Amino acid sequence: MSKLFQPESRAILFLNKVADLMLLNLVWLVGCLGIITIGTSTTALYKCLFLMSTGNLAYPFRSFWSYFRNEWKQSTLLWVPMLVTLVFLSVDFYAIFLAKLFKGITWKICFFIVLCVVVPMMLYVFPLQAKFQNSQRQTLKNACLLAIIHFPKSLVIAIVTFAPLFLWLLVPDVFFHTLVLVLFLGRSVPAYWSCHLFKTIFERYMAPEELEKQNAG
Fold it and tell me: Which residues of the chain have pLDDT under 50?
């Protein structure tokens, strides 16, 4: 029984990781309050989670805000066109499905095709920004290419990322029962799980020396 509470026991390590994920989820939410800072906050979150996945994240709170300050400019430049695109898609959704201004199955099919390409692409942008140093245009280009080339994994990442939303849409009655859990772990846990998939994808395009350097932390 005493081994269970030793600092290096699996139970303690697991609880420490859960605590770190809860902390990162909360600071990510705080970082998103400005709306325009959602991109910066997401990049900082992924930087911390990539480090956590290799066991090199010692100070989650301090690391997050350090990355947040450093990534402000580039991540904002990436986020603004994405925000405009999301607004445009939201207007399209309202016009096609709610207001029914555009009738016919063709409009619906086109909307879902665009959605299946754009959303996975957006999910790659900030992990790429967190992992590599590229220009805004190159990051967006790489995100688009990777989302298409690795579409099965991209689809899995999208499902995992939006799992809480899917749950609320399919079973509305669980909203209030799961709200606290989502507030504390709803973004960090899916992102942490997705990091492992992103790593397997990114490593295919990294030089051996670069891969060795990043694995070493």
Answer: 1
Rounded to the nearest 10 degrees, how much is the dihedral formed by the CA atoms of 84, 90, 96, 99? -120
The pLDDT score that the predictor gives to residue 117 is: 84
Q: 154: which DSSP letter?
A: H
86 Cβ contact list (under 8 Å, min separation 6): none
Q: Exposed (0-12), middle (13-18) or buried (19+): which is 5, by Cβ within 10 Å?
A: exposed
Sign of CA dihedral 204, 208, 210, 211: positive
- Residue 25 has φ and ψ, to the nearest 5°, of -65, -40
Q: Is the dihedral of CA 159, 164, 167, 172 positive or negative?
A: negative
Give the predicted TM-score (pTM) of the model: 0.90
Is the sign of the CA dihedral 42, 54, 158, 163 positive or negative?
negative
Contact 157, 123 (CB under 8 A): yes
